[in-house]
Amino acid sequence: MDQLVPYQAIFFPADGRPPSVVQLMTRYETILSLSIGSDRRHSPTHYGHNPGPRMPHPEAHMDFIAESSGLGGAKPWKYFIVDSLDMMNKKFTHPYIVYYPTVSRDGMPFPINKSIRDIQGPDFQEKYAWRVSQGNIIIGKFRDHDQPFTSMMDASMADFPILKNFIRTRARQQC
């Protein structure tokens, strides 16, 4: 049940290295459930572990990120969905999911992501740089619009032009 399953994702390092493909590990979150009934050896109650949703672990690629254990179970990262670009009248068949760090280990802000700053070029404004522009960013791909974590699929550098277009035009609006 704790089996890690990797998917390829695109990694935008904050230190200015070029974007690359990395392994985004996922695993099932275990949910403790209580079943009431007589389906298990005629016992009125049964405690068991059920596999929950498949949870990605982008924090493995995020520098200076806080440990989840110190946050009371909360994740030190957030995400948003990229399901279209400007002027598109249909959503992507296979949307993208952008993971970004939110809680640093030392409470300091994450460094400006030089890769994203370079893509945005002269339109980059440091005073508005947060979320997508700070820290290491990981972008994955998925199949089902309603279940981004459970329907992940491999991304590749062939997705880079679409993501570059998003970063150049809409990433500032997402912030």
Task: Give an account of the 3D structure.
The protein has 175 residues and is mainly beta. It has one domain (5-29, 55-174). The chain is built from three helices and seven strands, in the order E-E-E-E-E-H-E-E-H-H. It has helices at residues 114-120, 160-169, 171-174; strands at residues 5-12, 20-36, 45-56, 77-82, 96-101, 137-142, 152-153. Strands 1, 2, 3, 4, 5, 6 and 7 form a seven-stranded antiparallel sheet that branches. A hairpin with an 8-residue loop joins strand 2 (20-36) and strand 3. The chain is globular and about 45 Å long.
**Helix amount, in percent?**
10-25%
Structural class: mainly beta
Arithmetic mean pLDDT: 80
Which stretches are low in confidence, meaning pLDDT under 50 for 5 or more residues running? Answer: 32-50
Name the beta content range. Answer: 25-35%
* Oligomeric status: single chain
What would a concise description of this structure say?
It is built from three helices and seven strands. Strands 1, 2, 3, 4, 5, 6 and 7 form a seven-stranded antiparallel sheet that branches.
Give the helix/strand layout.
Layout: E1 5-12, E2 20-36, E3 45-56, E4 77-82, E5 96-101, H1 114-120, E6 137-142, E7 152-153, H2 160-169, H3 171-174
Antiparallel strand pairs: 1-2, 1-6, 2-3, 4-5, 5-6, 6-7
Characteristic terms for this protein:
3 helices, globular, 175 residues, 33% strand, 7-stranded antiparallel β-sheet, 12% helix, mainly beta
